[in-house]
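Below is how a single chain appears once it has passed through the pipeline. First comes the sequence as given, then the structure the pipeline wrote out for it. We keep one example in the README because the format questions we get most often are answered faster by looking than by reading.
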Amino acid sequence: MTGRRTLGPHFERLWAAYAVSSYGTWLGFGAFPLIAVLVLRCGPAEVAALAATGRAAGAVAALPLGPWVEFHRKRPVMVAMDLTRCVALLSVPAAYALGRLTYVQLLAVSVVVATAGIAFNAASGAYVKALVPPEDLLVANGRFEATTWTATMVGPPLGGAAVGVFGPVATVAADAVSHLLSALGIRTLKGPEPRPARTGGPRPGDLLAGWRHLLGHPSLRPLFLNAVVVNGLIMAGEPLLAVLLLDRYGYAPWQYGLVFAVPCAGGLVGSRLAHRLVARFGRHTTLRAAGALRACWPLGLAFAGPGVPGMVLVIVVQFGLVTCCGVFNPVLATCRLDHTDPGRVARTLTAWSVGSSTGIAALTALWGLLAAVTGPRAALAAAGVLLLATPLLLPRRGDAEPRPPAEAAGVSRRP
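Resulting structure:
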């Protein structure tokens, strides 16, 4: 099991900072849709637009950040992005307390948070590749994935309870504090970090370097296209499901959090099994199997209903989905790092995040319009049917490229 491997004290500190931030983020799961529905009385189209606009504008704003992150020290970038998210999120409870919270402010904050998140992920991915030996990357990514699902399991029920006791913006404040604590933790890291490939700022060709690598690589290209479509269709259903459960069926906030928290035990199991499955069946087979299975579940959300039967159905469907994602995600993250040179990791990860965010934003907006015409249930069914075809985008052949040795890749060994 991955939990028995030792990756060194510097990784442990980075992992702890990631855990704090993840727990804060998932404590505030669905906070903006919840505020939009319960405080600002927004409808399905407005809730979908909130999710779509934040991601789309954030992706556009983050586009030039990839080269900038690439040629700067990664730890200061991570600290700066955490602090940016903290300040932006704190503005929401402040405005709510003054009675001046608006839909436009929620949009602006979502843009800032999305932009900072993309830059943070690019910097952290590059930092992990430098900190962890290639043979331990899957173990490291499995730990991050397990932490994410543990936070997802614990955070939403606690967040729902906090909303019930302290009000609708309590979890946004908690999320802001978690980013502050993460920044303080990352600030104390003393692990090795190689100097940027060059200084003097990005050059004109740097903006497209990550895209050229993603779209030109025979293994990463199909994985990228699959991730964009799958993530977009899954996330497009999130605001619609929020409207369906919270508004039409009258779920209490704690119930809404519960149906998303309980299934995350499956994600924890999947992330812990990923390393063993790859060791037994190989990376390509594991990716294809988990990637195909995760597309089979979301169609069931179209049959969600009120009361206990509806809650049970959503929990079962989500459990199957997140278990498959728990296996797929760390293997995908490891493959992505393995096939990217250290000198362009940040640009590649930024391109990946921008493409994913743009796809999610476009499909979320489109599905919001579809739900306004057909209703949330029909729109969820349409997304589920389309997802059944997404395994066709997965790589058809095994990855024949050997991993580059750590010395050739310039990877720093664990101290």
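Residues 27 and 158 are 6 Å apart (CA to CA).

See the next section for the split statistics.
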